[in-house]
Amino acid sequence: MSNKIASGVTKLVAALEALDGPEERRRAILAALAVFGESAPSLPNASNELLGAGKREVPVAEVAADIHAAGVAWMKRNGVPQENIDQVFHLDGDGVSVLAAIGRGKSSQTINTYLLTGVASLLANGKAEFTDELARKNCEQLGCYDVNNHGKTLKSFDNKFTGSKNLGWKLTVPGLAAAATLLKSVTSQEG
């Protein structure tokens, strides 16, 4: 995706967030297409075109009510089923908390915990933004905080995060994709 398209999508999403619910967003999108003389896709299920070939759509009925609409959309886009979310997160009216450290070794678990902290925020409030304090707290609670190497691990974030320890972190598009891949790798501990 070009920077011009990414910038446009970011502005479009920001404008659509101000509307009340999916019906108003859909109507606004259709109206914008009409302004340009374009019509809506005439597919039996237009969301399949948006999801892309080969990606599994998560039925809305299978998604917990405590998940923000932006989190549901991210789950659908990336084919992350509710059962995988339930294995890693605790969802309730007070928010979403991370339950499990995933990965081998503290460095990998730390990076993954930061990714999951971003996803928890996305699921709770629609934005994959979080404070370093919260992510460190999650690392401590999950047993992957390495006081001697934590700062070094943060320097290996690559393109998955933007921000800083002082300003807070935000998952990038590659970060959201990495988090989806991580969550899809989770399997049920039952039977």
Concise summary:
By secondary structure, the protein is mainly α. The chain has helices at 3-17, 21-35, 46-51, 69-78, 82-88, 106-125, 132-142, 150-154, 173-184; strands at residues 89-92, 95-98, 129-130, 161-164, 168-171.
Q: State the domain count.
A: 2
In terms of per-residue confidence, which ranges show pLDDT below 50 for 5 or more consecutive residues?
Answer: 42-61
Judged by helices, strands and strand pairing, the structural class is mainly alpha
How many DSSP E strands? 5
How far is the N terminus from the C terminus? Answer: 41 Å
What are the secondary-structure elements, in order, as H or E?
Answer: HHHHHEEHEHHEEH
Radius of gyration: 18 Å
Helical stretch count?
Answer: 9
Largest sheet: 3 strands, antiparallel
Q: What overall geometry do the principal axes of the alpha carbons give? A: globular
Arithmetic mean pLDDT: 79
Helix content: 40-55%
What share of residues are in beta strands? 5-15%
Strand order of the largest sheet: 3-5-4
